[in-house]
Design a protein that fits this description.
single chain; 373 residues; nine-stranded mixed sheet; six-stranded parallel sheet; 9 helices
Length: 373
Amino acid sequence: MSFSPSTRKGPVGVALIGAGNISKQYLDNLTVFPDVKILVIADLFEEAAKARAEEYGIAEFGTPELALNHPDVEIIVNLTIPAAHVEVATAAVNAGKHVWTEKPFSLDRQSGLGLLKAADAAGIRLGTAPDTFLGAGLQTARRIIERGDIGTPLTGMTTFQTPGPESWHPNPAFLFQQGAGPLFDMGPYYLTALIQTFGSIRRVAAVGSSAKTTRIIGSGPKAGEEFAVEVPTHVSAMAQFEGGQSSHSVFSFESPRQRMGFVEITGSEATLSLPDPNYFDGDLKLWRPGAEEPEIIPATGPANGRGLGVLDMARALRAGTAHRATGDLAYHVLDSMVSITESVESGTFVDVTSNAPASAAVPEDWAPETATL
């Protein structure tokens, strides 16, 4: 899709739909980025919207309709539960608003493609988490790889293993329903990091399992309540990329020992350990043949946190340029995860037919807290 510069000037008006836990991380950043202005906090539960608005000094709050119909809102930040992502994003597109959605983009290919087509027909931008790949950690990794420090990138390994979020999350049941589990909840971070390195995924193979049919909430007002597990809580997946490279990934809510944030790219000359792709910063480790210890490389560039993708979209909107965390990239990640799920069910390799567009690198001096509009 080609874009024209926005006819509006100044900071871009933004509304949040969804005032749950993740909204705090977005608001901590978006309220200090001068190129965006938070105008509305909305939620189906108006008391939640009110509490969050008062916490951050946002004047307007209410139901999603307030955000969708607000004349000065240009971008809707969709922080609803995964099952509502497409419904809310489609409503925003129909209202003429650009959309940033938390991951996953959708829960199935059909609704995801429908959203892409609707947005394209309306000239609406779609952006989707994770935007962590825009942060200093993974952008520094990109610069290291692109200048040839590890030689030709060949293979990748990623690991995410925890006992599961029910011990600490006050309302974890949705994380064990269709469209969640460790694959759909955490997979977007790891798969996006791999795709940014190797390009589009072409085929996958996977196995999966669930150790328990029910789990018990361990904290908060619902502590002690039991809920059903609907999806595999351990997935081991292989992927082959368009250039022939391959990767192996583990996504698990079944490990007493936590191993989070492990991403390693092996090249013909060296191996690079990346920072946790769930975060925006962190040192990198470069392992050369024969070395007893790695070279520690500090990350450079912006590392503010969640909301960088919204800011990138806002600045691109005003300039008429492409933003980086696009709907097409998010759909490719979704397509890959659906294909992994199909491989778990079929026991065969599954082809991935969508493509991830290349995203422009983020300049080291990109300054989120500097006014540019």
